[in-house]
Specification:
The chain has 364 residues and is α+β, with helices and mostly antiparallel strands. It has helices spanning 48-55, 61-69, 143-154, 160-166, 186-197, 273-280, 303-315, 345-363; strands spanning 32-38, 46-47, 73-75, 78-79, 85-86, 91-96, 114-117, 121-126, 177-183, 202-210, 217-221, 223-226, 234-237, 247-255, 259-266, 321-329, 336-340. The protein folds into 3 domains: 1-103, RNA-binding S4 domain (Structural Genomics Hypothetical 15.5 Kd Protein In mrcA-pckA Intergenic Region, Chain A, Roll), CATH 3.10.290; 105-190, Pseudouridine synthase (2-Layer Sandwich), CATH 3.30.2350; 202-363, Pseudouridine synthase, CATH 3.30.2350.10. It is built from 8 helices and 17 strands. The strands form 4 sheets. Strands 7, 8, 9, 10, 11, 14, 15, 16 and 17 form a 9-stranded mixed sheet that branches. The longest helix is centred in the last third of the chain and has 19 residues, at 345-363. It is globular and about 70 Å long. It starts with 31 loop residues before the first strand and ends with a helix. 38% of the residues are buried.
Length: 364
């Protein structure tokens, strides 16, 4: 029988790259298993608080240490200290006192654009406006709800509600379009999670950003973490005092005088990483209403230009960011996999509009 423990809790969907640790949750008399994993054979000894912080996107060391101190994290069925070093074969279990029924995944008949599928994985091209997983303010109509429905009707041998929880090894923002991979088995999930953890997954994004670049390519570094005052936002901490290490490589693809089309390759995968890094170097994403791109950042003061920009905002009413390429090693066949997704219509149209505007200005 599980001990009845109170204190700060971790809210996690069952996945090796779970949902972010957020605010403390209400206390309860019962505990429920939220995450259970066995450490891979190749894992080097590592402090458990650091291990979990690296594995749980959006986690803070303080929150994890609180959970460990309140005995909500067990290793081999026993509480441990924050300095415990996990090793190969260890079974790690994290508990929460929220009933699993409160976060039940309900299968919903929502169309999915599946670009690849086999017995172990499937790759999905996510449209703009679709939230990846249920959460606060988005209890349903998410990609995970759609995946649960798809598996229920096409893969009856798989527990669709369980897979919808642990099959997600990474995610992209609601208003970012493009590719993501999901696992269809525990083995595939573990292997893919390890590839993401080791930064060996190829992820290339295309973004339209404000301003001109002095250098045609470069690398942005700086820890990314939640904003200390505005908790819905993330920010860059250049000195690394807060947040997690984040590295973004960029390359200019095309310049349109006041905005630039860039390619971004992620070496790490932090929440809002490209959006935050681009804002940090003075090039917020076009129409990014979180990070200052929803207003005119570069250009003239003339009414015609303002109207042109407003028309562009109307064409692409979200941050102009698309996950164009996704590459990884197949978790079972060990073959190299690479997938490409064409730009969605809203981004294509606004890029063409800026291209024509730039050509007109240059011809004057």
């Amino acid at each position: 029988m599980l001990p009845q423990i109170r204190g700060s809790l971790i809210s996690i969907i069952m996945t090796q790259q779970p949902i972010a640790i957020e605010e403390e949750l209400p206390e309860s008399e019962e505990l429920y298993e939220k995450l259970s994993l066995v450490i891979d054979k190749g894992q080097e000894p590592l402090r458990i608080d650091k291990f979990l912080m690296n594995r749980i996107e959006g986690a803070t060391r303080n929150k994890i240490q609180q959970a460990i101190e309140n005995e909500l994290v067990l290793v081999n069925e026993k509480p441990v200290k924050n300095n415990y070093k996990i090793k190969a074969g260890d079974k790690v279990v994290i508990f929460d006192n929220n009933s699993p029924e409160s976060s039940e995944i309900i299968p919903q008949n929502i169309p999915l654009n599946i670009v690849y599928e086999d017995d172990d994985i499937f790759v999905i091209n996510k449209p703009v406006g679709m939230v990846v997983h249920p959460g606060s303010g988005n209890p349903d109509n998410t990609l995970i709800n759609a995946v649960a429905y798809y598996l229920k009707n096409n893969c009856p041998e798989i527990d669709e509600t369980a897979l919808a929880r642990f099959g997600l090894v990474h995610r992209i923002d609601k208003n970012t379009s493009g590719l993501l991979v999901m696992a269809k088995s525990q083995k595939a999930m573990s292997d893919l999670a390890k590839q993401f953890f080791n930064h060996t997954v190829h992820r290339r994004y295309v973004a339209l950003v404000w301003g001109n670049f002095e250098e045609q390519e470069g690398t942005i570094t700086g820890h990314v973490g939640r904003h200390q005052r505005f908790r819905k936002l993330f920010t860059t901490y250049p000195d690394g005092e807060y947040g997690k290490e984040a590295i973004t490589h960029y390359k200019v693809l095309e310049n349109f005088n006041y905005v630039t089309l860039v390619e971004c390759r992620l070496e790490t995968g932090r929440t809002h990483q490209i959006r935050v890094h681009m804002q940090h170097i003075g090039h917020p994403l076009f129409n990014d209403d979180f990070y200052g791109g929803e207003r005119i950042v570069k250009g003239t003061i003339y009414t015609k230009y303002k109207q042109f920009v407003e028309n562009c905002f109307a064409l692409c009413p979200r941050q102009a960011l698309h996950a164009k390429e996704l590459g990884f090693i197949h978790p079972v066949t060990r073959k190299e996999m690479l997938f490409t997704s064409e730009l969605p219509d809203d981004m294509s149209q606004v890029i063409d509009k800026w291209r024509r505007y730039s050509q007109f200005k240059n011809a004057e």
